[in-house]
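Posted in: Structural Biology > Protein-Ligand Complexes

Title: Requesting predicted complex, zinc ion in pocket

I'd be grateful if someone could produce the 3D structure tokens for the following input. Sequence and ligand are given below.
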Amino acid sequence: MKASPEAQRRLLDLQAVDTALAQLAHRRKSLPELAEIDTVARELSALEDERVRAQVAVDDLDRDISRFEKDIEQVRQRKDRDQKRLDAGGALREIEGLQHELATLNRRQSELEDSELELMEQRESAESTLNEVRGRLAAAQERRAEAERRRDEALADIAKEHEFKTSSRGPLAADLPADLVALYDKIRLDSGLGAALFRSGRCGGCRIELYGADLARVKAAAADDVVRCEECRRIMVRTAESGL
Ligand SMILES: [Zn+2]
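-- Reply #1 --
Done. Output follows.
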């Protein structure tokens, strides 16, 4: 293939733009914020499980406490009934029976109230556990929102830079011979690099150093020959910097 030395030199400018575009694409995929958001998401899911467990513990205790309240209320009503019948008077045997029952009900009420108190203490500690988990959950949500904000900022910067590079690529490529750009693109799609400067006897793509007949072949090539590396197939662009 033939292409003017000037066109070949400008291929390096095109390559610089393409390399920058590839770097932007890489940056977009490997933003540290993405890993950070992943980590926080896993943390949030574990914390959400923890929050549900803590909530269930509080709900269970609430249910037990209200059962005790109902039992205590029943005992109270029965005591009221007995007391009214006692106040109304009656046969001695009946009065003794009621007094005995009242004493039993009082003991029962004390037992129920003690048990309820114990549950209320447990509930207090379960609720403080729940609040503590909620606090950690809120902090993690805040960290996620913050990381997402930083990710969006970085993505917006990358998009702006990408647009800038893309808009400069168009005219650059349009100005070059179509067959040269087609060859360059074909090689570039394999490895990201289609053309590289030949300097100090080395291919700028794979860095292999050329000697003897191989170097002589590059030196002997006409200025408008498109010379390719035999090792990596890339276009070796020769300029005044090449030292040939
Ligand atoms: Zn090479």
